[in-house]
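Batch job 17 of 40 flagged for manual review because the log was empty.
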Amino acid sequence: MIDLSWMAWTWPTAIFFIVIFSLIALMGVWEYAVPGGSPRVGILRFETTRGDRLFVSLLGSAFICLGWLWATDLSLWYALGVSALFFILVFRIV
């Protein structure tokens, strides 16, 4: 059995990682069903695909959560909400 006591496994942390793994799995299913998608030029002014936008969303969410932990003592549930909003904005405008 793996000893996971080195990490503070709270519900927000567990949900964060479950969502990441679920999004990657769903993206794989989506890519299998509709290969390639439709690359588009958004606010960054270069072509991005669904996978690119997912990567930016996940990376940004990680930094949002880390910054939240550094900057405030408020619950991580708020950071999870900010991350979800960031995810939606990236898929809409990037």
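Reviewer: the log was empty due to a logging misconfiguration, but the result itself is present. Strands lie at 40-41, 47-48. Unflagging and moving on to job 18.
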